[in-house]
């Protein structure tokens, strides 16, 4: 996972590229580099660590350039391994996102032909291959080069003597921004928004030539036209808007995100055409990370409301068993629409006969083109690595899908729909308790281990709560169904392991109280998340996080927002980075 | 000559109308404000216009394309609206040696512009009654010495109309301009620095200038523009319809029997007017509208695809696109005490300086039968107002009022 950018126009390219890389930092940030074309030479800088200020780093004057922010996959983070990578002559520079799986054999072949490699990266084979094929026509050389590559790539290439950039995409994201007399190409939209809101989403196999003020796209050697789309997000959407971290800002955006997502699909009735599910006898979710937890909640909802059996698969594991799926609806959930494992699993599910539905946040992303049907979460750009608002938006879509699949009449589901309609208010009710949650978080911040427990829908809530805690506070947090504690994890409990318990107002409530008493007997500190009107649980626990009362089904929203705030404030009390946790990247575009 | 028009802002004071389109694209006399500006420039001999666009820029780009009224149109995206100097600087790479700069939200006229096109460095000034609300210019032998923003004691009643002729020298000053107290890079600060740096700006007086700040200013602009239209009836007029004064009716529009229209009024294309309605002076009705039986409209702007179909009263109001009024929906436009109408703009009371002012209604608003809209209401886009409901004040977009 990496971020790449290229620019050709009338501005100083180094400034544009560095500012674009900063907006791509969420894709990885162990090292970065920029190359600019200056008087028929390639000038370049490479640095370790976070991306600097465009005013501090001046590469060279020039109106064409490329850059890269790296998250190492081949070769450790270092200045040598940072992109751009050049060929032997130093005239060809390449930035690349993806993995070249046959790079070892290509490298041996090129070395035997006398090429000298300076880095440990897979990318460097690309610059040497282009050098090998270059006869004065850069596009032709890149076209021949990508014919030799196996794996995934989004790449931008520059030649010292050519007033153009050549780019190509296969299984890694790449978006072209079309400005007035300028073009900017990057891995993701936020890098482009400073210059234009008009973009072209590129497709696998596309090859582009970018010239000053004009571009051409080729696919299979033929020139093609692709639609220019307008991004409705403003730059402010992609910035912090007064909050200390993107994560906190994004949590506070949840009421609006719910409104926007409901506005899309719910008016008087649920406006989702579910003809894609006609005749299916089972549903299989494929997802990773937070989206996997949304899927587990989706399973709970669909099985409970619609009575259709549901399986939930990690996308990265699904590829290893491949069941027949002729009567299956495969639902892929991915915020970015670019998660490599999920994309691969979708392709396989299709091959196995499944109908595919993608629940995606990013318009025009690869997942939306693979899937037979797409539902969009209207969460806007999510910058924080830890998913918050996009998770809640996924849940909202899942509620609507499950209700629609249930076959309930409008009057039967009216009570639930009404509750869904006031969900933005209920979340505001959770956010009002932020001060109390912060106070509890500060108490938790000294511990090294935590246990999250729940029953029923409380289990995936606990799993997602624990994931948030792990990824941003670096506290080892585990989630278990409360009933499973006695089958092993009890051994871990004690006064140094706080327990976070989600209590939902349904048939699990009484037995959860029993579990909490058992836990309390091991001297663990217990934090309960429960409804406003719960007068019972406070007798048994140390701290209570109160959320507005809802039907148990909707506690996935209210409890999750509370647990997101708990993780955020715990991480903050521990002085963690929060928006860019160590070793993690926002959208995982490698398998 | 080249002209740079600033057209990037949302115009937050124009909400709710600007939730769905940028301020410069709001219609006055059935044409976007910016179209009036571009057409005046074309008539004054401008051959290239650079539009600095931003908020909902697609609307502007789609409307004007690469050429409009015989003028070449070029675009620059100002991705963050950081002030007028910043806006001009974002067009730096396109600037000619000498160019005009003006705002896309103030209507200007060809005669005045003609007086500017031959100048080197010049500032258009305009005489007003209330100079304290503007940037007042202090002159010395016809040369601008100072621009004083909203002074307590104005040295003259000549104000800066925001129309300039610059030579490229101004660019250096744009780059040096510091952030103002308002937190913006402002062209007036750049000019002040240029004057200190020995550039001379000639004051050129203009006669007519319609600055549009709040929605009710659109009604004033509408009155002024309509006052000079000519009679031009292209649609079908049935027997028994009465058209008095200067009325323009577009192609495909039908005026049915019993309609009584008193100009100046402009009606767009493919609209259905009547039967039996009363359209009073200073009204603009867009394309594909329906003004039906027993409806009275006066001094109002009704945008495209909107139906005011039966038993309605609309006075001194602005109604967005794609609205539909239920039978009997009426807009009040006069307080019972006949006092000045004060509008609640997001919790802040703003004086309209008008005794008669109805409502501003955003796009896609639907009302039920007998809904009543109170004086000075601002209603957001996509609002539903139920039957018999009474609304007033500021209604957030997408609300449901029952």
Description:
The complex is a heterodimer of chains A (591) and B (402). With 591 residues, chain A is of the alpha/beta class. Chain A folds into three domains: 3-236, Aminohydrolase, N-terminal nucleophile (Ntn) domain (Glutamine Phosphoribosylpyrophosphate, subunit 1, domain 1, 4-Layer Sandwich); 240-421, Rossmann fold; 422-580, Rossmann fold (3-Layer(aba) Sandwich), CATH 3.40.50. Helices cover 33% and strands 23% of the residues of chain A. Chain A contains 17 helices and 25 strands. Chain A has an eight-stranded antiparallel beta sheet with strand order 3-2-4-1-10-9-11-15, with helices on one face. A seven-stranded antiparallel beta sheet of chain A has the order 5-6-7-8-12-13-14, covered by helices on one side. Chain A is globular and about 80 Å long. By secondary structure, chain B is α/β, with parallel strands linked by helices. Chain B has seven helices and 41 strands. In chain B, helix 5 (170-176) packs across helix 6 (187-196). The N and C termini of chain B lie far apart (55 Å). The model of chain B has no long low-confidence stretch (mean pLDDT 92). The A-B interface holds A 10-11, 179-181, 193-198, 230, 235, 259, 263 and B 57-58, 74-77, 79-80, 93-94, 398.
Quick synopsis:
The complex is a heterodimer of chains A (591) and B (402). Chain A has 591 residues and is an alpha/beta fold. Chain A has an 8-stranded antiparallel beta sheet, covered by helices on one side.
